[in-house]
Design brief:
Elements: H1 3-14, H2 18-26, H3 32-40, E1 45-47, E2 56-62, E3 66-68, E4 71-82, E5 87-97, E6 107-112, H4 118-133, E7 137-138, H5 141-144, E8 147-152, E9 163-165, H6 166-171
Parallel strand pairs: 5-7
Antiparallel strand pairs: 1-2, 2-4, 3-4, 4-5, 5-6, 8-9
């Protein structure tokens, strides 16, 4: 993992530089519009939920459904982009309608950092190239879920589990830092 990730986590959570975190969270993500325009040139649906102030932005991408006989498969991708430091995470997903009479749930689904279909792979290549040109580094699923030692989760916060991870530190405002008045 890059040193900047660990240094930033130490700066914000160990040294309690909440002003830095808050300032970065308030800033607009300058690359977001260009990235969305790049993605919109594909045959996909793109959405970006409005976030007033937060440490990251998320882009949702839905691909056309695949249908053959009774089988229907949905494919999607989401991209998390940190506003704190130039890192991002890409997750590809699929969901198959479960038509088994003995099913336990309505869908069979999964996710991975690797694409499931060629459309996801082609879009991933374009997005990765865009991020590289803009100085961003991709974090893998494993890197996102690395536990950060010596930082304790507040007793009343269990939404993300009992430990801080890279994901909770750089992509979520787990301590409500953005709500703290200076």
């Amino acid at each position: 993992m890059d040193e900047i990730v660990l240094e930033t986590i130490e700066r914000v959570y160990k040294n309690k530089d909440y002003a830095f975190f808050n300032k970065k969270s308030e800033e607009d993500l300058v690359i977001l519009d260009d990235l969305v325009k790049l993605i919109e040139h594909e045959t996909v649906e793109v959405s970006t939920p409005e976030v007033e102030i937060g440490p990251s932005e998320r882009i949702y991408i839905d691909y056309p459904k695949f249908k053959r006989g009774e089988m229907v498969v949905s494919y999607s991708t989401f991209i998390d982009i940190s506003k704190i430091i130039p890192v991002y995470y890409v997750q590809h997903e699929f969901a198959v309608e479960n038509i088994d009479e003995n099913r336990m749930g309505p869908v069979l689904d999964g996710f991975d950092g690797q694409p499931y279909i060629i459309n996801q792979a082609n879009l991933y290549d374009k997005v990765s190239c865009f991020f590289d040109k803009n100085g961003y580094k991709e974090l893998s699923y494993v890197e996102m879920n690395i536990v950060i030692p010596d930082i304790k989760m507040p007793q009343d916060v269990w939404l993300f589990g009992p430990q801080f991870t890279v994901r909770t530190c750089l992509f979520n405002d787990i301590l409500n830092i953005c709500e703290i008045d200076d």
